[in-house]
Every structure is written in C-alpha cells, then in structure tokens.
Amino acid sequence: MKCLYNIAMECYGAGVALASLWNTKARLWSAGRKDLFERMRSSIDPNSRTIWIHVASLGEFEQGRPIIEKIKAEKPEYNILLTFFSPSGYEIRKNYTGADYIFYLPLDTPKNAKQFLDIVNPEIAIFVKYEYWLNLLAQLRARKVRTFIVSAIYREKSIFFRSYGELWRTALDTFETIFVQDNHSRTLLAKLGCDNVIVAGDTRFDRVAQIAAAAKRIDIVEQFKGDRRLFVAGSSWGEDEELIVRLANENPTIKFVIAPHEMEDSRMAKIAQTAKYGAVRYTQYKAEDADKQILILDTMGMLSSVYGYADFSYIGGGFGVGIHNTLEAATFGLPISFGPNYKKFKEARDMITLGAATSISNYDELNRWFTPLRDDITHLATVSQISKEYTAKHQGATEIFYKTVF
What we know:
Elements: H1 2-19, H2 24-32, H3 36-43, E1 49-55, H4 58-74, E2 78-84, H5 87-93, E3 101-104, H6 110-120, E4 124-128, H7 134-142, E5 146-152, H8 166-172, E6 177-180, H9 183-191, E7 197-199, H10 204-213, H11 219-225, E8 230-236, H12 238-249, E9 255-260, H13 265-274, E10 279-281, E11 294-296, H14 303-306, E12 312-315, H15 327-330, E13 336-338, H16 346-354, E14 357-359, H17 363-375, H18 377-393, H19 397-405
Parallel strand pairs: 1-2, 1-4, 2-3, 4-5, 5-6, 6-7, 8-9, 8-12, 9-11, 10-11, 12-13, 13-14
Helix pairs in contact: 1-2, 4-10, 4-19, 6-7
C-alpha cells in the first residue's frame, strides 16, 4: 500500500506538471515548488527554534491564523514556518506578516519529506483540519517531533475507518494530541483506540471574532446604504446571483451588496443588466450612484467588514460544491440563508437547527425566508440574537490548544 501511495504521489506531480501547460493553478503549483529546497535553505536559520504549521489552502489558513498569532504573541522565541499545499492559499497569503517563513509544501515523496525536515528541523509541527501526508508524518514520528492536528473533524466514511485505511490509521499515531471539533469525531477515533483526543471546537470561531473586532469602516458602503436596510450576498456564484437579483428586483426598498466568489466581468455585467433598480461595481462607484440598489463588491478582502453593515445575509456556493464561510456573517448576528449543498458543514447544520439559518432550493423558498424577516422587526431581532450567540458560545478552541501544548 505504501508503494502505491508513493507511485500516486509521483503520478500526481507529473500530472500537475503536464496540466501547467494550460492551467493557471497548476502552473502556480509547479512554479512555486521550483528550487524550493534551495530557497528554504537560504531563508531558514538552521539554529532557530521553529514551529511548522501546515494548511491546505485559504480556509485552513484562516482556521490556523488564531494559533499562529497566539504563538507569536506568547512565544516570540520561536520562528513560525507556514506551508500551503494550494496556490489559492499561498498566492493570497504569501506576504502574511504573522509567519517568519512561508513556502509551498513539497510533494510528499520519501526523499522530499526527509529533505524538507532536515532543513526545517521543527520542534513542533501543527496540521490544520486535515491533510495526512504519509511520508512527512512517518518522518515526524521517526524524529519524535511533537506533532498536533487542530480543528480536525472525522466522519464514518473517512479513509481511517475503511478496510484499506491501515496506513492512515498508523498516521494518526504521529499526533501527540488530536484536537477535534465535536464529540462525534472523538467517538469515532475511540473505536480505533485513539485516546489522545480533545474536543476543543473549531478555531474558526476565534478567527471570526477577531475579524468582527477589527472590522473596518467603509465609506462607500456607508454612503451606498444610507438609512436603508442592507442584504449582503457573500461568495456568490451564478445560480446564487440569479436568485439574489430577483429578490432585489422585488424588494426595491432594500439595498443589496453582492460579492461574487469569482469576479468575472461577464458575470458582474449580467448582474448589472438584470438589476431593475440599478447596480454599480465598488471600484467604479461615484456619489451619484447612491440611489442604485445593488453594489457589486469587485475587490478582495472587504467582505467580512461589509457584513458589519448588513441586516440579512446569503452565503453562496450551495448550488455547487458547497457553501462558503457562514461564520463571518453569523458573528455579526445576521440571519443566514444558503443553497442546498451544506450538510458537510457542521456550523450550517447547527444554525439551521437553532433557527439562525435556512437552506433554500429555489426562489420561492428564499422569498418565504426573507419576507418575515423584512416585515417583522421582532422576528429579525430574535434570529439575529440566535446567530450572534451561537458564534460567541463556540469560541475558545485556540486557548484550549495553547494551554495543552505549551
């Protein structure tokens, strides 16, 4: 089985190299790993005390960020190495100042794993949520490096619980402590004989609390909103946008901000063309656009602060691979709606159960959710309070991790 895993790694690397001829993401993946070890050697002080934190992509980075910043604040004697697997995380956060070194993770071959750890020589290794690279974990075990995984979540269908999952079950032995999000994960791991498990929750709750506390004032959004109520649709895709524009057209007294997940000119143009009461892109906004109904957020890094101006929210992605981050909206106490593909996200299931969120499959369901919130101030306040209390209640995973490890 280990041999098959190593063959799969080599095939994956070759496949990405081939795809890089026409695919931008694959090209970034390959280019980012070119001369990787030479660049690492020239940057990393071999005599420094290093903590290595690995994240798959941008979402996992946001989960790991409270831990990174807690360590930097409390343990300045350590240098932080942050690695990414995906270009969508690395390219956006490669200049993040909270880490001392930021690199791509090398392809997980036996040779690369040994070379990587020879250079880094970490005292502590932390994996965020998932990504069980078997050769790296084997090397960490052999070197007796203190290794942890945080905000992990396990399901019955995970490879660890399959008949062919022996190698991955062995990989779990690498972790001094497994910090999981829920009791269900702890119960599943107990069936494998894992007793080094702590239910700490999800560090994303700590992160969104930080985001809310640091929310920025945005003059354009303030001017655009005026004294009207605001509906924010975050990380939207095409099918989401069709529903939201229709809702806007039928609710002319409500202002809308739409933040597309991918800012394609054609999609933003379609929003503007179908908006009955006018739409303008954020980067093209002028004072005279304040009477338009829809503001299209065509810039990065602002959505979390925009939620602070909202009264209602919709999270995109639920008609595709899965919904995006609901917690950024929930931490501001917003009622939340999203499409039908949400079930793998615990916080979405929780908030539906509590009444803070609703899943919709079509426009009629969206309208039935929105109308009572629009028309009944007491109902809106009740749902908003549930949403805010949910995020506040689940904070603290970072502190549990820190006190356990240090």
